[in-house]
C-alpha cells in the first residue's frame, strides 16, 4: 500500500488482470450497447430525469441518492473497456463497494509550507474548497512560458497549480510518443520549478506532466529529479469509460513512485450517454469504475458538450452539479468540476461562465475546483489568472451557502453567457491583457474583473 | 402531400425508433408498389437521414439515435435497395464521395471523428474509418488502396499535429498530393495550421466537415 497515495497494489494488479483477461468486446458494441443501451435502461429504471426548466442547482436529495444507486448498479454492469486489449474490465458490486469503503476522506498534497489539504465535503457544507488553478493545457510559446505562468503561480488563492502546454521544445515541434515528448517533459519540469522558485512557493503541488500525450512524457517528467510524488500526476479515461495501456502504465507508475494522482474523465453531453440525465449518471458510474481502475487520489469530472466542447453549457452544468451531489453525499470522493468555458479572457462572459460552474459545484459538495481552460483551450495563450481569481473569490464566498440560495446566482450568470456560446467570444491572449514586466492585468482587463465582482456583490450581497 | 412524402415521414419515425424490421418491410412494400429503388433512396432515405443529421446538430437527438438510424439504413440498403438495383440492372445510387477518416498517431480520442463519420454517412458519403492512433503511412497507403476522394484527419492534441504534417509530406514524396483533398479537424487544429499545411479545408464541427466534403465533391 502506498504510504503517500494509499494505493493498494493488489487492487491495481486486479485491474491489470482484467484488462488482460476480461471478455473480448468490439468497441462499437461497447459504445452502443454496453454504454448506450445500459445508460438509457438504468435512467429509466431509477427514474433519473433532468428537464430544461429544472433549476441549474437542484436541491433534491432523493434524486441525488437515486442517482448514486443507479450509478453503483451501472458501474458493476459496465466497468471499463481497454482499447488495447479489446477486453471488458468488470468488477462486482461487492468489489466496488470494498474499493470505495477504504477511500480516504482527505489528502494533503505538496510539500513544506506550500501544502494544500483537500477534504471530502457534502452539499452546502461550510468548509474550504481548494483552488487548483492555472491555464490547464492551453498552448503557450516557450518565450512566454515563464511570465505567463508566474502570473498565476504568485496568486495566493491558487493552492495547487496547473500549467499550460509548451507549443515547442527547444525550438522544435513536439511529437507525441517520440523522444521530443521526453525532451519537452523535462523542459516543462525545469520551467515549472523555476516558476515555483520565482514566486517563493517551492513546495506547491503541480499538475503534471502537462505535455505528456503518452506515457513517454509522464515517465520522462517524473524520473529522478523530476516532478515529485507530492505533485498531482494525471490519469484519465477516454470517453466513455475507456482505458488504454498508456493509462494503465501510468497507474502502475504512480503505485511504484507512491505519487498522488488526479484521475479525470469527460462524459459527453449528446454522446453515447445521452443528455443531461445521462451525463449526471456518467459522473457517478465513471467515478466509481475509475476508482477501481486507477485508485486516483483526486477525482475530476469535466463533462463536455459534444458540439461546443465546453463544460459550462447550461445543460452540462446542471448535470455535473447533480452528479457531484450524488458522489459527495454517498462516497468519500474528493471531487472537482473541470471548468472549460467557451469564452476567453478579456471578456465579461468568461467570469460569468467560470463563476456559474464554480458556484454550482461548490454548493453541490465538490472538494476542489480545476479552473480554467479558457476559450476551450484551443487558442494559444488565451488565458489569464483573473478568471481563476474570480472563481476562487466566488467559491470561498459561497462555502456554506444552500443550494436553494445559490440557484438564482447561477441562473443569473448563465443568462449572461449562454447566448454567446455558439459563437464564442475568444477574447485576447495573455500578453495583450497583462503587463509583461509587472505581470499585472492591464487597466481595461482589471476594470472588467472589478465590474463583474461589483455586480455580484450588489446583486447577491456577497463579499468577494 | 404525395404518397412518398407520407412514406418518408413514416420512414423517419422508424429510423428514430431504430426498428430495422419495420424499415425493411416498409422499403419492400414501397418497391413492390412500383417505386424505383433509387427514387426510394432519394425521396425517403436521404431526406430522413438529412433530418436526423439536423436533429443531432441541435441535439434534439443524441449520438446513439444517430448511430442506430445509420445502422437501420445500412440494413435497408443491404437487404432491399442494393439487391433491387442489381436485379433491375439500373444505375445504382451514386455515392456523394469516398472519404477516409482517421484520428492521427498518438491520439486515442475518437468521438469527434466518429461524429464526422456518421454525419458523412447520413449525407451519402462512403467512409473508410481507420480508427485512432493511425500512423501517417497507413493513412496514405489506405487512401491509395481504397481510392478515396478525401482524406480527413482529426486530433485533439497539439503534440499529434506533426503526424498530420507527415501525411502531407508523404503525399508530396509520392507525388500524389493532387489525387486527394485533405481536410482536418479536432481541437488541436486551427485554420492557420490548415493553411500552413496546404490542406483543402478545416472543419470546426461535424456539420462543417460535411459541408466541406460536399463543396469539394461538387
Task: Describe it.
The complex is a heterodimer of chains A (464) and B (218). Chain A has 464 residues and is of the alpha/beta class. Chain A has one domain (106-460): Alpha-Beta Barrel (TIM Barrel). Helix content of chain A is 45%, strand content 12%. Chain A is built from 15 helices and 17 strands. In chain A, the strands form 5 sheets. Chain A has an 8-stranded parallel β-sheet. Chain A has a 3-stranded mixed β-sheet with strand order 2-1-11. Chain A is globular, with a radius of gyration of 21 Å. Chain A starts with 8 loop residues before the first helix and ends with a helix. The mean pLDDT of chain A is 97. By secondary structure, chain B is of the alpha/beta class. Chain B folds into 2 domains: 3-88, Methionine synthase domain (Methyltransferase, Methionine Synthase (B12-binding Domains), Chain A, domain 1, Orthogonal Bundle); 98-217, Cobalamin-binding domain (Rossmann fold, 3-Layer(aba) Sandwich). In chain B, 60% of the residues lie in helices and 11% in strands. Chain B contains 9 helices and 5 strands; from the N terminus they run ααααβαβαβαβαβα. Chain B has helices spanning 3-17, 20-32, 37-57, 63-88, 111-122, 136-145, 161-174, 191-197, 206-217; strands at 98-103, 126-129, 150-154, 181-185, 201-203. A 5-stranded parallel β-sheet of chain B has the order 2-1-3-4-5, sandwiched between helices. In chain B, helix 4 (63-88) packs parallel to helix 5 (111-122), helix 5 (111-122) crosses helix 9 and helix 6 crosses helix 7 (161-174). The radius of gyration of chain B is 19 Å and the shape is elongated. The two termini of chain B are 30 Å apart. The model of chain B has no long low-confidence stretch (mean pLDDT 92). Classes of the chains: A alpha/beta (464), B alpha/beta (218). The interface between A and B is medium-sized, with 37 and 30 residues.
Amino acid at each position: 500500500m502506498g504510504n503517500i497515495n494509499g494505493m493498494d497494489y493488489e487492487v491495481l494488479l486486479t485491474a491489470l488482470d482484467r484488462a488482460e483477461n476480461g471478455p473480448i468486446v468490439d468497441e462499437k458494441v461497447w459504445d452502443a450497447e454496453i454504454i448506450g443501451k445500459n445508460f438509457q435502461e438504468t435512467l429509466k429504471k431509477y427514474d433519473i430525469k433532468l428537464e430544461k426548466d429544472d433549476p441549474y442547482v437542484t436541491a433534491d436529495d432523493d434524486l441525488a441518492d437515486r442517482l448514486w444507486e443507479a450509478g453503483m448498479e451501472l458501474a458493476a454492469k459496465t466497468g471499463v473497456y481497454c482499447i488495447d486489449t479489446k477486453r471488458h474490465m468488470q468488477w462486482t458490486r461487492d468489489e466496488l463497494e470494498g474499493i470505495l469503503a477504504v477511500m480516504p476522506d482527505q489528502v494533503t498534497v505538496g510539500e513544506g509550507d506550500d501544502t494544500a489539504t483537500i477534504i471530502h465535503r457534502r452539499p452546502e457544507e461550510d468548509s474550504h474548497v481548494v483552488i487548483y488553478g492555472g491555464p490547464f493545457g492551453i498552448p503557450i510559446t516557450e518565450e512566454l512560458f515563464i511570465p505567463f505562468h508566474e502570473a498565476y503561480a504568485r496568486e495566493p488563492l491558487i493552492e495547487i497549480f496547473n500549467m499550460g502546454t509548451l507549443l515547442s521544445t527547444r525550438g522544435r515541434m513536439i511529437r507525441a510518443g517520440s523522444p521530443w515528448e521526453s525532451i519537452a517533459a523535462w523542459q516543462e519540469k525545469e520551467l515549472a520549478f523555476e516558476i515555483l522558485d520565482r514566486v517563493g512557493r517551492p513546495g506547491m503541488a503541480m499538475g503534471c506532466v502537462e505535455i505528456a500525450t503518452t506515457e513517454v512524457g509522464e515517465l520522462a517528467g517524473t524520473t529522478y529529479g523530476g516532478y515529485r510524488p507530492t505533485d498531482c500526476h494525471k490519469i484519465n479515461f477516454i470517453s466513455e469509460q475507456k482505458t488504454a495501456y498508456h493509462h494503465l502504465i501510468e497507474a502502475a507508475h504512480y503505485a511504484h513512485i507512491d505519487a498522488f494522482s488526479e484521475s479525470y474523465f469527460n462524459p459527453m453531453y449528446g454522446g453515447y450517454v445521452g443528455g443531461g440525465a445521462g451525463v449526471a449518471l456518467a459522473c457517478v458510474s465513471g467515478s466509481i469504475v475509475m476508482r477501481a481502475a486507477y485508485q486516483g487520489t483526486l477525482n475530476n469530472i469535466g463533462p463536455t458538450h459534444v458540439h461546443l466542447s465546453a463544460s459550462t453549457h447550461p445543460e452540462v452544468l446542471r448535470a455535473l452539479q447533480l452528479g457531484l451531489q450524488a458522489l459527495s453525499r454517498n462516497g468519500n470522493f474528493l471531487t472537482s468540476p473541470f471548468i472549460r468555458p467557451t469564452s476567453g479572457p478579456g471578456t465579461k462572459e468568461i467570469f460569468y461562465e467560470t463563476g456559474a460552474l464554480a458556484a454550482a459545484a461548490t454548493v453541490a459538495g465538490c472538494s476542489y475546483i480545476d479552473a480554467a481552460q479558457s476559450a476551450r483551450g484551443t487558442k494559444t495563450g488565451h488565458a489569464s489568472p483573473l478568471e481563476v481569481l474570480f472563481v476562487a473569490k466566488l467559491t470561498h464566498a459561497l462555502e456554506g451557502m444552500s443550494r436553494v440560495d445559490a440557484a438564482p446566482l447561477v441562473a443569473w450568470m448563465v443568462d449572461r453567457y449562454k447566448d454567446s456560446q455558439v459563437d464564442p467570444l475568444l477574447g485576447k491572449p495573455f500578453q495583450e491583457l497583462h503587463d509583461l514586466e509587472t505581470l499585472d492585468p492591464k487597466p481595461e482587463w482589471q476594470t472588467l474583473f472589478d465590474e463583474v465582482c461589483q455586480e455580484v456583490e450588489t446583486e447577491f450581497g456577497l463579499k468577494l | 402531400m404525395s404518397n412518398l412524402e407520407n412514406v418518408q415521414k413514416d420512414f423517419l419515425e422508424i429510423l428514430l425508433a431504430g426498428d430495422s424490421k419495420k424499415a425493411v418491410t416498409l422499403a419492400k412494400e414501397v418497391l413492390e408498389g412500383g417505386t424505383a429503388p433509387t427514387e426510394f433512396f432519394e425521396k425517403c432515405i436521404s431526406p430522413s437521414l438529412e433530418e436526423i443529421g439536423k436533429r443531432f446538430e441541435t441535439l434534439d437527438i443524441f449520438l446513439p439515435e444517430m448511430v442506430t438510424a445509420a445502422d437501420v439504413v445500412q440494413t435497408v440498403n443491404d437487404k432491399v435497395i442494393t439487391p433491387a438495383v442489381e436485379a433491375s440492372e439500373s444505375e445504382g445510387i451514386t455515392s456523394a464521395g469516398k472519404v477516409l477518416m482517421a484520428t492521427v498517431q498518438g491520439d486515442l480520442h475518437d468521438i469527434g471523428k466518429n461524429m464526422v463519420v456518421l454525419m458523412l454517412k447520413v449525407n451519402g458519403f462512403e467512409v473508410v474509418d481507420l480508427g485512432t492512433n493511425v500512423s501517417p503511412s497507413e493513412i496514405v497507403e489506405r487512401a491509395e488502396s481504397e481510392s478515396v476522394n478525401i482524406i480527413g484527419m482529426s486530433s485533439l492534441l497539439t503534440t499529434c499535429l506533426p503526424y498530420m504534417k507527415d501525411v502531407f509530406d508523404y503525399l508530396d514524396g509520392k507525388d500524389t498530393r493532387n489525387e486527394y483533398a485533405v481536410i482536418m479537424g479536432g481541437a488541436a487544429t486551427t485554420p492557420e495550421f490548415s493553411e500552413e499545411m496546404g490542406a483543402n479545408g478545416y472543419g470546426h464541427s461535424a456539420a462543417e466537415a460535411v459541408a466541406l466534403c460536399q463543396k469539394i465533391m461538387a
